[in-house]
Structure formats: structure tokens, C-alpha cells
UniProtKB/TrEMBL annotation:
<feature type="transmembrane region" description="Helical">
    <location>
        <begin position="33"/>
        <end position="59"/>
    </location>
</feature>
<keyword id="KW-0812">Transmembrane</keyword>
<keyword id="KW-0443">Lipid metabolism</keyword>
<protein>
    <recommendedName>
        <fullName>2-acyl-glycerophospho-ethanolamine acyltransferase</fullName>
    </recommendedName>
</protein>
<dbReference type="GO" id="GO:0006629">
    <property type="term" value="P:lipid metabolic process"/>
</dbReference>
<keyword id="KW-0012">Acyltransferase</keyword>
<keyword id="KW-1133">Transmembrane helix</keyword>
<keyword id="KW-0808">Transferase</keyword>
<keyword id="KW-0472">Membrane</keyword>
<dbReference type="GO" id="GO:0016746">
    <property type="term" value="F:acyltransferase activity"/>
</dbReference>
Length: 286
């Protein structure tokens, strides 16, 4: 039986523990020597993304997912998952997939999985819109464009007509963490009648590069990460959890958060996205 007790979230972890300030944890001579090759790699991958945007319409829809997996490998992205794609499809169909958020590239592994549906409200740059279009269409995945509560309700209503057609991937922290601890999960999208599959996500980059630098604009993060020789994701799908009306929505969200934190062996904290941005504003003050 599912544990209905209130998880005990950490209260003694400072907000700075969850936030990366610098783009690089360290910057060595080897990093400097690599950078010219990194710029060439960046240019070649941008060309590859553009080329993929031209050719993916030639592939049948049922083949695009497998072609997409080859495409991301060519980008240097490796995804190590505890299940095969077919098993992920069976495990997540009709579920909300609640994942940690450690990089702006986090959606790329999810789009390689069956039934993947992401919720978006905007892209922060023309580059983001261009790449996002290619990734979604090229992987034969779908998305919900949600700008207000009315659109959200309509999306869930349509989903309930054929729930097995979608696995809704969300990031309940609503912001990036640095892999050292988890921000508190928000319950809004996890209490609508669908089972929740927690996902523990890790990313590994070379040269001491941070996957979630708090002070760097999105396009800088994107291009810097794309310069790296590899981007390794470790994706672990955990057991399903079910919301009970005996729990408060926040208690259930805390339970999902704690399940992921326990697997990753990191603290589950009460710090929120708003706390992060307050901390960021303090750092900018002279």
C-alpha cells in the first residue's frame, strides 16, 4: 500500500546549495586547449540540426522516433535508461512523468520515448523556437501549448478521452537545480487523476562545465553545452505513485519529490522556484 505519511523535507540546506552561479566549476589548461575544437564541433552540430530539420519530413511518422535516437547520438548525446524504450512506453502510457530538471537539454531524452508529450508556454529565443520545432516534429512527439488555465483544462479533457496516447512529461520544480538537492515540487499537474511516474535524471558533462549555470542566458547554456564532446544522461524511471484524496495535493507532491531524492541520495528541500529567484536577485545587488 502506498505510504500516506507526510515526507520530512530538509529544512537545514542553504539555498546556495541548490544554485550554480558559475558556468564552469573549474577552468583548466586542458579546457582552454579544447575550446577551438569545441567551436568547430558547435558549428558542425548546428549545421546537423538544420539539416535534420530539412530531412525529417521525408521519414514516415512511425520511423521518426528511431531516426531521432540516431540523430541525438550524432549530437554527442548518450541516454542510459533503466528500461528499454518499449518498456518505458508501457510503464508511462496514460501517466504524468515527473522528472528532475538539471539542464536545458532535459527534454531531449524524454522525446526519445514513446507517447512523449511535453507542456510548454513559450520559447525564450528564436534559436529555442527553431530547435524546439525540429526536436518535437523530428521525434514524432507532441506538446501542449498552454498559456492559460482554460487551455490547460482543455488539454486534460482531450487527454482523458484516450489517456494511453500520451505520457505527459513535466518538471515539478519549475526551475533548474544543480544536482545537489531538489527544489520543492509543485502539485498542480500531478493530482488530475493520472498515475505519476517519478523520474530520476542525471547529466554528466566534461571539463567541469555546469549543466545549470544560474547566471547565464539560455542561448549561452545551449551553445556551450553543444560544444562539449559528449553529453551523458542517466534516466531512471521509478515505480508509479497514485494520488489519494486522503492526502493534500502538496503532501503527494512531496512524496514524489522524496522518492526521486531517495534514489539520487540528495536532499529534498522546501526551497521553491521563487526562493531561487529571490536569491538570484540578491546576488546581483552591489
Amino acid at each position: 500500500m502506498q505510504n500516506l505519511e507526510q515526507p520530512t523535507l530538509c529544512q537545514d540546506v542553504p539555498i546556495s546549495t541548490l544554485c550554480d552561479v558559475k558556468l564552469w566549476h573549474h577552468f583548466s589548461v586542458l579546457t582552454v586547449m579544447y575550446m577551438p575544437f569545441g567551436f568547430l564541433l558547435l558549428l558542425s552540430r548546428l549545421v546537423l540540426i538544420g539539416a535534420y530539420g530539412l530531412v525529417f519530413p521525408l521519414f514516415p511518422h512511425e520511423k521518426r522516433k528511431s531516426v531521432y535516437r540516431v540523430f541525438i547520438r550524432l549530437l554527442g548525446i548518450r541516454v542510459h535508461c533503466n528500461m528499454s524504450p518499449e518498456a518505458v512506453g508501457q510503464h508511462t502510457a496514460g501517466c504524468v512523468v515527473a522528472s528532475t530538471h538539471v539542464s536545458i537539454f532535459d527534454h531531449i531524452p524524454g522525446l526519445a520515448m514513446p507517447h512523449a508529450t511535453l507542456m510548454i508556454d513559450k520559447a525564450d529565443s528564436p534559436l529555442g523556437k527553431f530547435v524546439g520545432y525540429i526536436l518535437f516534429k523530428g521525434s514524432n512527439s507532441s506538446y501542449w501549448l498552454v498559456k492559460n488555465q482554460r487551455q490547460l483544462v482543455q488539454c486534460f479533457r482531450e487527454w482523458n478521452k484516450a489517456p494511453e496516447n500520451h505520457a505527459l512529461y513535466i518538471t515539478p520544480e519549475a526551475t533548474l537545480n544543480n544536482g545537489q538537492a531538489l527544489f520543492r515540487f509543485r502539485p498542480e499537474f500531478m493530482i488530475r487523476g493520472q498515475p505519476v511516474v517519478p523520474v530520476a535524471l542525471k547529466v554528466r558533462l566534461p571539463f567541469g562545465l555546469s549543466p545549470s549555470p544560474m547566471m547565464s542566458p539560455g542561448y549561452i547554456r545551449f551553445m556551450t553545452i553543444l560544444m562539449m564532446p559528449y553529453i551523458h544522461f542517466e534516466v531512471t524511471y521509478l515505480d508509479k505513485l497514485h494520488y489519494s484524496k486522503e492526502q493534500s495535493p502538496q503532501t503527494f507532491a512531496d512524496t514524489v519529490q522524496q522518492a526521486i531524492a531517495d534514489y539520487l541520495k540528495i536532499p529534498a528541500t522546501r526551497w521553491t522556484r521563487d526562493d531561487k529567484y529571490s536569491y538570484k536577485a540578491q546576488l546581483k545587488q552591489p
